[in-house]
Amino acid sequence: MTITIALPSKGRIKEDTAAVFERAGLAISAIGNDRSYRARVDGLEGVEIAYLSASEIARELAGGSVDFGVTGEDLVREGMADVDEKVEFCARLGFGQADVVVAVPEIWLDVETMEDLGDVAADFRARHGRRLGIATKYWRLTQQFFSRQHGIQLYRIVESLGATEGAPAAGQADIIVDITSTGSTLKANHLKVLDDGVILSSEACLVRARKQGHEGDPRIRRIVEAVRSAVASGDG
Ligand SMILES: Nc1ncnc2c1ncn2[C@@H]1O[C@H](COP(=O)(O)OP(=O)(O)OP(=O)(O)O)[C@@H](O)[C@H]1O
Ligand SMILES: O=P(O)(O)OC[C@H]1O[C@H](OP(=O)(O)OP(=O)(O)O)[C@H](O)[C@@H]1O
């Protein structure tokens, strides 16, 4: 059985991922030319690297077509239901940190918590003739957090494909759920994070798709242990 590890081909977590694999002693050699999207791990028979984008990696983990992937926890949790049954988060890699948050307009002075927001949602229709609109590309995380964790049912998700923070000012939605790292995009758009509005503190992770055949395969153990020890040594 070939083991496939999906690594980011571009974007903000690409270089740090390559550095972790190097520290882990998992040297990667390109197959074919430099622009190839396939590679191998030196000294590990039957282990193949596939280069994909961060969101594709989350999708392939969900579909079970790769054995491991390095991508953001946010994308993995957004990409599948019952995530902890389907994948194992083997190592948190210490980069790509970002929080998925609930943010509301700064001028909503009396809305500071999810409970406050629940009150707003409850009488939004009576006041405005429509449900509270939440702009996001994280619809699964939003539904879990609002409906299951906070019992807020009266809202409408407005799917956003980019520039989510601009949606309230543009009148497309009332509030947002999006990723923040420095907070400057929220601030520029006059939005504030609710006190208990952090849905997930995400970072890049080594993730394993739970598959039959992994147990007892020494290559699986070796990959996990090598990456874990590289992360531990990188901490010091
Ligand atoms: N400031 C930030 N903005 C967006 N994502 C961030 C930020 N900081 C860290 N991340 C994390 O980086 C990951 C996404 O990486 P990146 O934006 O490089 O992907 P990408 O190459 O654009 O992928 P795709 O094209 O598949 O969306 C996510 O897991 C996200 O949580
Ligand atoms: O809290 P901050 O440090 O301001 O970062 C958060 C912003 O950064 C990302 O957008 P980016 O401009 O990187 O575009 P992308 O989502 O297309 O990668 C993200 O979607 C947020 O909008």
Automatic annotation (TrEMBL):
PROSITE patterns xrefs: ATP_P_PHORIBOSYLTR (PS01316)
SUPFAM superfamilies reported in the protein's UniProt record: Periplasmic binding protein-like II (SSF53850)
Domain notes: Lacks the C-terminal regulatory region which is replaced by HisZ.
Gene: hisG
Function statement: Catalyzes the condensation of ATP and 5-phosphoribose 1-diphosphate to form N'-(5'-phosphoribosyl)-ATP (PR-ATP). Has a crucial role in the pathway because the rate of histidine biosynthesis seems to be controlled primarily by regulation of HisG enzymatic activity.
Protein name: ATP phosphoribosyltransferase
Organism in which the protein naturally occurs: Pseudorhizobium endolithicum
Record localization: Cytoplasm
Keywords of the record: Amino-acid biosynthesis, ATP-binding, Cytoplasm, Glycosyltransferase, Histidine biosynthesis, Nucleotide-binding, Transferase
Catalytic activity: 1-(5-phospho-beta-D-ribosyl)-ATP + diphosphate = 5-phospho-alpha-D-ribose 1-diphosphate + ATP
Any Pfam family the entry gives: HisG
Pathway: Amino-acid biosynthesis; L-histidine biosynthesis; L-histidine from 5-phospho-alpha-D-ribose 1-diphosphate: step 1/9
Record domain ATP phosphoribosyltransferase catalytic: where: 54-228
Molecular functions per Gene Ontology: glycosyltransferase activity
Lineage: superkingdom: Bacteria
Main localisation: cytoplasm
Family that this chain belongs to: Belongs to the ATP phosphoribosyltransferase family. Short subfamily.
Oligomeric and partner information: Heteromultimer composed of HisG and HisZ subunits.
E.C. numbers: 2.4.2.17
